[in-house]
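fyi for ur records
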Amino acid sequence: MEWKKVAEQMFPTGHEIKQYGDLLSGEGRCDKQTVAVIGTTNHTEVGVELALAMGAAVLAVIRDHPGRPIVFLVDTSGQRLRHRDEMLGLNGYMAHLAKCVEMARRRGHAIISLVYEQALSGGFLANGMMADVCAALPEAEIRVMGLAAMARVTRISEERLTELSVSSPVFAPGARNYLKMGGLDALWEGDLSICLKKALEHIDSTDHRSVNGLERGGRLLAEPVVKRVLASA
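which gave:
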């Protein structure tokens, strides 16, 4: 779905979100509350420039609007796999963005992420997996690695991986499978403004992903392993 349609549905009373290349930045109104909006579009790759720009946008919210919730609109094909970006230290730029998000959280900013198109690999970490509430539209595409690439790495045939993906969400891309694994808190369906309002009313910074994955039957070992490690500490 195009970001403008998502913004119209999330902020029916109005928004001032602008597009700067592949970067989205601005604010929207949810009920009587104003939220900051930072995002990406065009299935963009997150390179050094975009990571810096997103980090700067987060810092600007911290400086100019203390405590204002931040909503990330996610549409990315992952980190930019280019020699130039790797030589410049893309991992450091991505870490900088992650630190900005964490600083915002520690300063009292609720962090909400919505995958409205696609989220792949490392481009989804700082602006998605670090959020207090990580949600997606049902039709959104989320994956770390496609089955064809997974087949090349694991040397398991793509046909066999396709069979496994039917019963195991670990092998399957898609928002519903990430929900089963606990990677998503919820799928936002229907009135997006109501979904956002409810998310803002129930912010919980505790990491429930391993528990959710166990309860939903998509990630069965993470929580038991966590408990065993804590018990032996």
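Residues 3-208 form a domain with the 2-enoyl-CoA Hydratase; Chain A, domain 1 fold (CATH 3.90.226.10). thats all i got for now
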